[in-house]
Amino acid sequence: QVQLVESGGGLVQAGGSLRLSCAASGNFFSINNMGWYRQAPGKQRELVAITTSDGTTTYADSVKGRFTISRDNAKNTVYLQMNSLKPEDTAVYYCNAVVTTIIMRPYVYWGQGTQVTVSS
Asked: What are 30-47's pLDDT values in tens digits?
């Protein structure tokens, strides 16, 4: 079993910054992709950014140039630095990890979500 614990959400004014963290713990062979998704009220969950184990990153067009995803493999932790925040960034942000389990099977885990609210 793997646990993803998120932190760093909160309330910020437009133009401000927040940094999200997500630490993975438990029994697994390796962590492959780690990333962040978000879900605003009344909308579907959408990809924000992901990073592979070798550091390749992918961003949603809406956050390119404003958000930066990074990863500390030694700590099994992924970060999301969010700058120039806009009210439309308001959502619950979920950490995601694709893990190779101890029985060598891939499995997807989700964090519990952290609220990010950007006021105008």
From this structure: 999 999 999 999 999 999
For residues 98 and 21, what is the distance between their CA atoms, to the nearest angstrom?
Answer: 16
Q: What is the DSSP letter of 27?
A: S
CA separation for the pair 80, 101 (Å, rounded): 25
* CA dist 45 → 6, 26, 29, 40, 94 (Å): 17, 25, 28, 7, 9
Q: How does pLDDT run across 43-65, given as a tens digit for each residue?
A: 999 999 999 999 899 999 999 99
How far is residue 36's CA from residue 57's CA, in Å, rounded to a whole number?
A: 11
pLDDT at residue 1 above 90? no
Query: What is the separation, in whole angstroms, between the first and last Cα of the chain?
Result: 40
